[in-house]
Design goal:
With 407 residues, the chain is an alpha/beta fold. A seven-stranded mixed beta sheet has the order 4-10-9-8-7-5-6, with helices on both faces. Strands 11-14-13 form a three-stranded antiparallel beta sheet, covered by helices on one side. Strands 1-2 form a two-stranded antiparallel ribbon.
Length: 407
């Protein structure tokens, strides 16, 4: 069987992406980590760069828990006790004690009746959202929602799909009014924190609108939030967008792979919802879970977050984020307002964004340039991500590197 003709098609697609500037940069390969020392946080060694050390400001580990000794020890203990892999999907050969303990801990952390883990947050969104949608459902989705939400809605094929402009509550109200005319159920789905911008959904206002229109739908208006960038990074207690907005979604989806520092995703909600998903969600039923070791590590990380030590990490994270934002403003750089550790530097030109990112790397700072189609045209930016691992000295070194870039 030949592959030559289709391979030429694929190669041409790659060429077009390169020619248009849309092809991604080669992936960085991290080959070592140098522990924090001398007033600096951890430094990273890259393939091909010898012993040169890099400051990493393009990772989602907002609390620095991936390298926490207690988290590592929890994973090692569970791996020795249960092995390094789950070996099958849960309904076939049974689940592992660390999985169930993690689910109970997540439910308590979010004050929900139950929680259920998936192999990733992407799998969680794909495995939850379509199960709540049928041919009588309207879906209302923020225009800047993550790719996983977009694909989940496409998979579900609802009766009506309404994409409202980013954070536009008047448009959402209009959409709900239209949906009430011919749909029996409405799903409002939104990111909690929008990962390319660092702003967060006005969850309190969304829930007010949902309550206003709920009586016009035979099967409710349901609010679903993917708070993968919010949990562990937003709020004094790390409860994410719900804490920041003082409101609670009907269905909460999040990740164990960002602030929690491990791997996997989860959904938290009512007992009935979780029992239903265990029966019907294909990304749960037919896919292996995270390993027992990962589950134990994530459980320990959540316990740290839900403690005084976690609150200290969050306070330090807020302080470092504000130091970096203030430094950008002092340089006259354009950024977006907010308190989240995603801090975008708006460049608004693809070629200049790439040049800026290369300049930072030459000075030992890793930050990711983003341009179309990852972000809308004209919103080219460098996304900086602050971590509780960062120190004042780290932040100042990054700002010095920024200040040296000449337009």
């Amino acid at each position: 069987m030949g592959f030559d003709r289709i391979e030429r098609v694929l190669a041409r697609d790659l060429e077009m992406r390169s020619e248009s500037g849309r092809r991604k940069e080669p992936e960085v390969v991290i080959v070592g980590v140098v522990p924090a020392e001398g007033g600096r946080g951890p430094r990273f060694l890259l393939e091909g760069e010898g012993e040169r050390r890099f400051l990493r400001m393009n990772a989602n580990g907002y609390l620095g828990l991936a390298r926490d000794p207690d988290v590592i020890a929890a994973e090692e203990r569970a791996s020795r006790a249960f092995g390094v892999g789950p070996e099958a999907v849960r309904f076939i050969s049974g689940t592992w004690a660390p999985h169930r303990e993690l689910e109970r801990r997540l439910a308590r952390f979010h004050s929900r009746e139950a929680a259920m883990i998936y192999s990733s947050a992407y799998a969680a969104v794909m495995g939850v959202v379509p199960q709540l949608i049928d041919a009588r459902t309207a879906v209302l989705s923020d225009a800047l929602n993550h790719n996983c939400i977009i694909n989940a809605v496409r998979l579900a094929e609802p009766r009506m799909k309404f994409v409202y402009p980013h954070l536009d509550m008047a448009a959402l109200e209009t959409g709900l009014a239209e949906a009430a005319e011919n749909c029996e159920r409405a799903i409002v789905v939104t990111d909690g924190v929008f990962s390319m911008r660092g702003d967060h959904a006005p969850l309190d206002r969304i829930l007010e609108l949902a309550e206003t229109f709920d009586g016009r739908f035979a099967e409710n208006v349901i609010v679903v939030v993917d708070d993968s960038h919010g949990v562990g990074a937003l709020g004094e207690r790390g409860r994410g967008t719900e804490e920041a907005a003082g409101a609670r979604a009907d269905v909460l989806i999040s990740t164990l792979g960002k602030a929690i520092g491990v791997n996997g995703g989860y959904v938290a909600g009512s007992r009935t919802l979780v029992d239903f998903l265990r029966e019907t969600s294909p990304f749960y039923v037919y896919s292996n879970p995270i390993t027992p070791g990962e589950a134990a590590a994530a459980g320990r990380a959540v316990a740290i977050l839900d403690s005084e030590a976690g609150r200290r990490r969050l306070a330090h994270l807020r302080a470092m984020t504000e130091r970096f934002r203030s430094g950008l403003r002092a340089q006259g750089r354009e950024t977006l307002p907010g308190v989240h550790p995603v801090v975008p530097l708006m460049v608004r030109d693809a070629a200049r964004t790439r040049a800026f990112a290369r300049h930072l790397r030459e000075l030992g700072v890793l930050a990711t340039g983003l341009h179309y189609p990852v972000v809308p045209e004209g919103e080219d930016k460098i996304r900086f991500q602050v971590s509780a691992d960062h120190t004042e000295r780290d932040i100042d070194e990054a700002l010095e590197a920024l200040a040296s870039f000449e337009d």
